[in-house]
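Quick one: structure for this chain?
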Amino acid sequence: MDVKEDVLLDARGLKCPMASVKTALALEQLSGGGIVKVLTDDPVSKNDLPQWVRGNGHQVLGIEDREGFAEIYVKKVGG
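Got it. Here's what it folds into:
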């Protein structure tokens, strides 16, 4: 995906819900419009993290499958 992230969050090796918890902490540090790229190898997080993001008013820009993990691009909405 051709998006430049502000924060790279490597959550590989973490089980759900830790990817969501760490994403929330990363988003707190950003201004509106900031982008977090989350790397996860947990299949539960790959499904649950986008739901958490949307449920908290943010935007999922895309999900890309890589060999053994996924990249999830999250855009912070609001301040």
